[in-house]
Amino acid sequence: MELKTLKTIASRSFTLLVVLVVACQVQAQDAKTPYPSMAPLEQYLIADRNAEIALARSAAPNSISQDAEVMVFGRNGYETAVQGKNGFVCLVQRSWMSGIDDSDFWNPKLRAPICLNPPATRSFLPLIIRRTELILAGRSKTQMFEDMQAAVAKKELPTPETGAMSYMLSKQGYLSDSAGHWHPHLMFFLPLTEPAAWGAGSPGSPVVGVFTDTPERLSVFLVPVPKWSDGTDATMEGH
Amino acid sequence: MKRNILRTIASTSFALVVMLGAAWQALAQDTKTAYPSMAPLEQYLIADRNAEIALARSAAPESISRDAEVMVLGRQGYETAVQGKNGFVCIVERSWTSPIDDPGFWNPKGRAPICFNPPAARYNVPLTIKKTELVLAGRSKAQMFEAIEAAFDKKEFPALEPGAMCYMLSKQAYLSDSDPHHWHPHLMFFVPLMEPAVWGAGLPGSPVVATFTDTQERMSVFLVPVAKWSDGTDASMDQH
User: Fold this and answer.
1) Which H or E run contains A221?
2) CB of B167 within 8 Å of any CB in chain A?
3) Contact A91, A56 (CB under 8 A)
4) What is the structure's pLDDT at B72?
C-alpha cells in the first residue's frame, strides 16, 4: 500500500517523488523489474523475532508503540507477538502491499513499518492480513488483486472507518529501492476520495500524495512530518 | 476554533503549546481575561477587502487557494467575495469561533486564516456563519453557544463528512497574543467526537500535537504541524 502510494502523486517540493511518479506513469511491468516474481519465502522473513518487533515499533514514537500490539510475519502469515493495550497495532509490511503496477511488488528487501490507530486496525489491518494469506497460499499477483476485489465487493472486508490513520516514522524502513526510508509521514485512510478534495499533490501542498486503490476501494493520503520516531529531524529537502 | 485547540492537549516538543495548554486547564473565565466582552465591531473588521481576501488565501498554497471561494467579514456577517471552483473555502475566522472558555474569545486582534476542503467547508462554514450572525445580533457568548447547541439538536447543520480537513499555513495569522502569534503551519482534521488517544494526539514525540474535542460542535479536531508556510518558506519546528 505505502509503496505504491509513494509513486502515485507528488508535490513539486519532493523531487524524489516526481521521479517516482514518472516511473509509475511508465507502468512498469513485472518483466521489466528486477523482481518479476515472488522470491523464496525466506527472503521476506526476518529471522530475529525481536528485531522484527523493534522494527515494527519504530513506526511510531515510543509513547504510542510501547503499548501497541505488535504482529510479526511468519511462514503462516502475521501473528501477534506482543499483546497491546492502546488499540494500536504495529507491524512490518512486506512488498505485496504495493500496487499491482509497482516495480517493487515482489522486492524481498522491502520493509515498511507501520503503526495503525484503532480505527485503522479494525478497517485496514484486515486487508494486510488477507493479502498476505493469499500470497502465502500461492496466488499470483493478478489473482491476489482479483480475490481482494471480489472480497470487497462481497463486503467480506471492511471499508475505512472514520478517523482511520497510521504512523510511518521509521528511519529503519525500506520502502523501495528508489526511496529507501523516504520521509516520516502519516497516512489517512478514506473511502474512495478524489485527490483534489485534499489538495493532494498540488504544488506546495503538505499533502504530498494520495493512493487510490481501486481493488480495495479506498484512498490513502500522505502527510510528511518533521521528525522520525526517534525524535531526530527529517531533512525535507534531502531528496 | 484554532485558539482553543492550541490550549487543549500538547506534545512535550512544543513548549508554546504546553504553555497554552496550561492556560486552558486553568479554565480562564471572561472576568480574568484581557477581553471580557466584545469590542466595538470595527476592531474585528479588516478595512481593506482585498487585504482580507489575500489573508484568507494565505492559509493554503496558491495552487489551492487561487481557485477557492473566499469569504470576508462585513458588518452583516460573512459574504462571498470571490467565487470558487475547486470546492475549497478560504476565510479569516475571528475570535468568536473559539470555544466558550477561551480567554481570547473576544480578542479583536485574532485573525485565523483557514482554507476548508470541500467536506469541511460543507460542515464548518455554516457553523462559522451562524456563530457570526449570532454575535453580530448582539447575543452573548453563552447565548451564542446555547443557540448553536440547540441548532445541532434540531439537526439544522449538515452532518460531518469523512475526509473533512483544512489548511492553516498562514504566516500572517494572529492566533493568540502569545509570541509567535502565527504558531506553526498545520493541517487540521475534523472527525466525529473521538478520544485524543485514538490518534496518539499529544503523546510525547507524536506529530499529532494536539486535539480539540468540541462538545458544542460535536466533533474532534486533530492538529498536525507541517514543515512549510503557504509561501514555501520553512517553519522552524524547534524554535518554540
Assistant:
1) strand A218-224
2) yes
3) yes
4) 98
Q: Parse chain B into domains and list their residue ranges.
A: 2-184
Cβ-based neighbour number of residue A136 at 10 Å: 17
Give the mean model confidence (pLDDT) for residues A35-56: 97
Question: Largest alpha-carbon pair distance within chain B?
Answer: 45
The CA distance from A143 to A27, in Å, is 19
Give this complex's ipTM.
Answer: 0.86
**Region class of A155: left (phi > 0), else alpha (psi between -120 and 50), else beta:** left
Let me know if B139 is exposed, middle or buried by CB neighbors in 10 A (0-12, 13-18, 19+). Answer: middle
Q: Which of A186, A197, A204 has the CB atom closest to B63's CB atom?
A: A204
Asked whether the beta carbons of residue B61 and residue A204 sit closer than 8 angstroms, the reply is yes
Q: How far is CA B108 from the centre of its chain?
A: 14
pLDDT in tens, B96-130: 998 888 889 999 999 999 999 999 999 999 999 99
CA atoms of B168 and B228, how far apart (whole Å):
11
Tell me the C-alpha to C-alpha distance, in Å, between residue A219 and each of A151, A169, B207: 17, 20, 21
| Nearest chain B Cα distance for residue A79, angstroms | 23
Contact status of B87 with chain A (Cβ, < 8 Å): yes
A21 has a pLDDT exceeding 50 = no
Q: What percent of chain A has pLDDT over 70?
A: 84
Distance CA A17, CA A6 (A): 7
Buried-exposed string A177-194: b where 16+ CB fall within 10 A, e elsewhere:
ebbebbbbbbbbbbeebe
